[in-house]
Amino acid sequence: MLLGAATSAHQVEGKVQNDWTLWENRGKAPPVGEACRSWERMEEDVELLKEIGANFYRFSVEWSRIEPDEGRFNGEAVLRYRRFVDHLLKAGITPMITLHHFTNPIWFYATGGWLREDSPIIFGRYAAFVSSFFPDVPFWITVNEPNVFAYQGYVIGAWPPGKRSITLALKVVKNMLKAHVRAYGEIKRNVKGASVGIAHHMRVFQPVGLLGRIPAFLRDYTFNFLPVYAEVKGRILPPAGFESLGRTGDFIGINYYTKDRVRFSPKDPFGVEVYPEGVWRNSLGWEVYPRGIYETVKRFSFGKPVIITENGIATESHSERVEFVSRHLRWLKRAKGEGINVKGYLYWSLLDNYEWLDGYSAKFGIFTRTREKKGDFNIKELWERA
Ligand code: NOJ
Fold first, then answer.
1. CATH for the 56-311+324-348 domain, from 3.20.20.80, 3.40.1190.10, 3.90.1150.10, 3.55.40.20
2. Per the confidence metrics, is the pTM higher than 0.85?
3. In the chain, at which residue ranges do the beta strands (DSSP E only) sit?
């Protein structure tokens, strides 16, 4: 079993300049500042991984560092990640590289970003460049949570570029799925035997009342089902379009955090969320529902290997974190016992890092932002005991 933790470049590295930093500069998000300084200190993160008994680490490379201008690649930046991967491999920790984790180079953003018709081609070129440096990295995530990215940036406009249009959001999802297919091909060409997938954000949508089944279904279909179906079956479904892609997805990557309770609303086909009292919530108010990891894995594995690419809790309490992980691992083990090929689990996150609109207020880390230990945490033992 592959066990470890996950991070992303913007959230931990510091010293980045991308579309999200523009957003910060406009006062639309808290400033990232130096983050966890992992750009300088990422080798120290390997020590933390060893300390928690990890044999697996998921991190992302920052596109804006690697392709600072359109078509001009910075080999130095990739070599910095290359040194880090050598360090991981030497420590016996299997790397998983994410190519896109929400942030974009400014030139890409300024010229239309994921609405550009040629965005899949541009992304494929970037994927080809990066993967040529890592023939020994066995696991790859092309894009992280295309559904969340499109929702936040193009439906509710909370993230860059701040648009509010379902039509645009669907176009973005479609382009990201096409970009995934391109990147998939490039990685497979450069890295023999690589396992390549998408990290899908998946949620349980629980209907409230009989009519709640309608919005819960619509959410489940567009948010959970459509992207993973496109990946595995190679077909984009309406309302995103009706197009064939290549079949990809060597494993199903799942980021699982929470359940939404959804009630019918005459004003919105996607309904409204309800928040009953007395349920377990993280410090951001998200309901904690450990059984959901089991339900999700069972529903969306499509007979393929499954990797939990993220699962975690924002909390001030370390013992609550340990409890959270134990409970989720227990359900995951049950799915495995019932024949689902669960290959890995990554806790989000190794460190308290920059949580997008919530800045540094949300504490997901096993370690603090400055790498202090919060308490006992051994992922291998937690899995064995689950
Ligand atoms: C999923 C995202 O991939 C990650 O960037 C974020 O920090 C966590 N969820 C927690 O919200």
1. 3.20.20.80
2. yes
3. 2-6, 56-60, 94-100, 139-144, 195-208, 235-236, 243-244, 252-265, 268-273, 306-310, 342-348
